Task: inverse folding
């Protein structure tokens, strides 16, 4: 038996990865409908050797659809996901719109797959930085109970979409050629520069991206006592986010046992060569499924506190792969 599936936002960076993963993982499809904005309607996309035509997304697009993989932006999900549910489909939503809705499960399958069964038509995919962090944090938290996590992110252009990735490439080329460049997505010079994450600032001085990590972690881990603080930064990398974590535990931990827990954790790989000062890099994670971790060490300034470094592909495990894994669990 296959599922009548639709991808909402099929022409975007995440939409394209969803297509590839459905093919690569042999997801049981009865039919596949590609939905996008009016300007993308009519575009032809090859899937499993068959030419599919992108259709304009409307409220009537979900007739005879079982599953919707949504990655078209929060306002689009807010408008169209209810129509999909009303038509009888289950929506796996990759935007931020439904994540903190108490009626909507927020799921990382390796951590809280049991929440999927509680859905009422919509299941939310967490923010990319949250997913990557929690794959490393969850097995350690389960063993020693984390009290507080300090996270610094180094986020690639992929987090802002395919156009941002193209802008970074074009701007880099322009600057090397001493030419002016007019960007449209990223607000600051991106090539050869870093800047605080460009999501809207909130009243408490944290940007929205940072608050997503704070709030989503508590919901996914189901632990209101877990404290999280984050500083999110854009770096001129095309794809794959990096994060530095400082984790304070309630219980004393062992470094070698922490390594062993991470080596055995689903979706995680330890990647490092201490003798050569070699740790996970974005080029290691780009186009691959795991979250790579390394450089575990004790915080010299505070007891029961672990430092670690991780890298993961924002478009894959940070978005499309997590969504497809949720669909597979369904």
Result:
């Amino acid at each position: 038996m296959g599922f009548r599936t639709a991808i909402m936002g099929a022409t975007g960076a995440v939409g394209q990865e969803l297509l590839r993963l459905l093919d690569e993982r042999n997801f049981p499809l009865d039919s596949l409908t590609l939905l996008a904005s009016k300007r993308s309607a009519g575009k032809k996309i090859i899937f499993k050797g068959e030419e599919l035509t992108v259709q304009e997304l409307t409220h009537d697009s979900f007739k005879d659809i079982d599953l919707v993989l949504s990655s078209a932006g929060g306002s689009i999900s807010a408008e169209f996901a209810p129509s999909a549910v009303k038509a009888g489909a289950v929506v796996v939503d990759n935007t931020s719109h439904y994540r903190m809705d108490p009626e909507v499960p927020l799921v990382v399958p390796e951590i809280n797959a049991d929440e999927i069964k509680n859905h009422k038509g919509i299941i939310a995919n967490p923010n990319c930085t949250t997913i990557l962090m929690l794959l490393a944090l969850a097995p350690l938290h389960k063993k020693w109970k984390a009290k507080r996590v300090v996270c610094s992110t180094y986020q690639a252009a992929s987090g802002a979409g395919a156009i941002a990735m193209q802008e970074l490439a074009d701007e880099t080329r322009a600057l090397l050629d001493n030419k002016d460049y007019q960007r449209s997505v990223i607000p600051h010079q991106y090539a050869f520069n870093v800047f605080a994450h460009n999501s809207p600032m909130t009243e408490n001085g944290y940007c929205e991206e940072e608050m997503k990590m704070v709030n989503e972690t508590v919901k996914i881990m189901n632990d209101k006592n877990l404290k999280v603080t984050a500083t999110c930064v854009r770096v001129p990398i095309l794809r794959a986010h990096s994060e530095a974590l400082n984790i304070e535990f309630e219980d004393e931990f062992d470094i070698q046992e922490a390594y062993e827990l991470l080596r055995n954790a689903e979706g995680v790989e330890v990647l490092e060569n201490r003798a050569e000062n070699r740790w996970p890099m974005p080029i290691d994670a780009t186009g691959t499924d795991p979250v790579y971790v390394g450089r575990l060490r004790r915080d010299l300034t505070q007891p029961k506190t672990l430092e670690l470094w991780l890298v993961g592909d924002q478009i894959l495990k940070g978005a499309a792969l997590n969504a497809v894994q949720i669909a597979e669990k369904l």
DSSP finds nine helices and 15 strands in the chain. The chain has a mean pLDDT of 96.
